[in-house]
Design brief:
The chain contains seven helices and 21 strands. With 365 residues, it is of the alpha+beta class.
């Protein structure tokens, strides 16, 4: 099977005996046994890299609250065939659920979480070795308490365009290196904050021993590429691409209104004088009409660091931040989207996927 540009394609598999089918009875017994008392969870990741001809559960998902035997058995299950070398494909939560169901797992006892689809990339041969090393390092990190805290905080971020940097106290070093599957972790933030100083209550369990409760303090900072003035921008000046450059800045508050998309800045009017090197925020700009009724707009969806694009037609006009009705040109379905730039709309979460006929444009800059 060949998948290109992350286009979803239904996977038809022949019903013939395989090595995996021989383990169905064993898997049924394994998951009919009493659980450890902690929720068994399979969490689909937003992106993954594979180097073999098959995409396995362990490639695209993290398994939590399970015994080492369960992790080993489920992790080797095949979900779909891999894309061709150098290509990418979407693996959906529905495909993962179907693979688990075919193995006769009791899905009533397993919670499927994470993103609705994972973008799987298969590198060309010369990339494979370096990708494999990085993948092994990432996998090892993800199994530690440090990695699971990172994932917990990343999932709470609404803007994932930057990278999350975490710092802990020196006395937490040994605790943070504890790793699964020997240890399992139940992490509960004690505040609604997603950046800055965050207290965590962590239940650490080894095997079937009673959990040990630990208090962990983490300082979370999001590093993002934002636009700054390349030269002095005078009050009332219309901003062009030549007025801008980018710099990486640290953010400790999600409410910071720095702008990281060129389409949200170019064509706007400066409300105040912006000096060279100053970060440009929404408060510095007077909004101009960015989308007009009846014109085609670029519909952009962020999926785990990849931008997925399609084309829609605006049913209303609006300025930056306005929510308007948009018609998907491929499906003709209507949905609501927020204006994020010049002729650019981002679907609201309430719409679900609205990117039929979309294409993957790569990592965000």
């Amino acid at each position: 099977m060949e998948r290109k540009d992350c286009d979803r394609r239904d996977v038809q598999q022949e019903s013939k005996p395989t090595g995996a089918a021989m383990g169905i009875a064993c898997m049924w017994v394994l998951f009919s046994a009493p659980s450890w008392g902690w929720a068994q969870t399979i969490r689909l990741c937003p992106a993954a890299v594979v180097t073999s001809d098959q995409v396995k559960v362990v490639d695209v998902a993290q398994l939590e609250g399970m015994s080492p035997d369960q992790v080993s058995q489920i992790g080797e299950m095949v979900v779909v065939s891999s894309p061709s070398a150098g290509q990418s494909a979407m693996v959906t939560l529905a495909e993962l659920r179907s693979a688990l169901s075919q193995a006769r797992l009791n899905l009533a006892e397993i919670s499927l979480k994470g993103v609705t689809q994972c973008c799987v990339h298969r590198p060309v041969q010369e990339e494979a070795e370096s990708q494999r090393v990085r993948s092994e390092q990432d996998e090892k990190e993800n199994r530690t308490l440090r990695g699971q805290i990172r994932r917990t905080l990343e999932e709470r971020l609404t803007d994932r365009s930057g990278r999350l940097e975490l710092s802990f106290g020196a006395n937490a070093k040994d605790l943070l290196e504890l790793s699964g599957p020997e240890y399992t972790f139940d992490i509960h933030p004690e505040t609604s904050r997603v950046l800055g100083r965050i207290g965590l209550r962590v239940a650490v369990r080894r095997g079937q021993e009673p959990p040990q409760i630990e208090e962990v303090i983490v300082e979370a900072v999001q590093m993002r590429e934002v636009f700054v003035a390349a030269n002095t921008i005078n009050r009332g000046q219309i901003i062009t691409r030549q007025c801008l450059t980018t710099q990486e800045r640290a953010f400790r508050d999600v409410e910071d209104d720095a702008l990281s998309h060129a389409s949200a800045v170019i064509g706007q009017q400066a409300k105040n004088c912006i000096h060279t090197g100053e970060m440009i925020t929404a408060k510095d700009l007077t909004s101009q009409v960015l989308v007009r009724r009846g014109e085609l707009v670029d519909v952009v969806v962020d999926r785990g660091g990849f931008k997925i694009r399609s084309v829609g037609r605006a049913m209303d006009k609006g300025i930056l931040g306005d929510v308007i009705e948009v018609r998907n040109e491929a499906s003709q379905k209507m949905f609501r989207g927020r204006i994020v730039g010049l002729q650019q709309v981002e679907p609201l979460v309430e719409n679900g996927p609205q990117v039929a006929g979309s294409e993957k444009t790569g990592k965000q800059s």
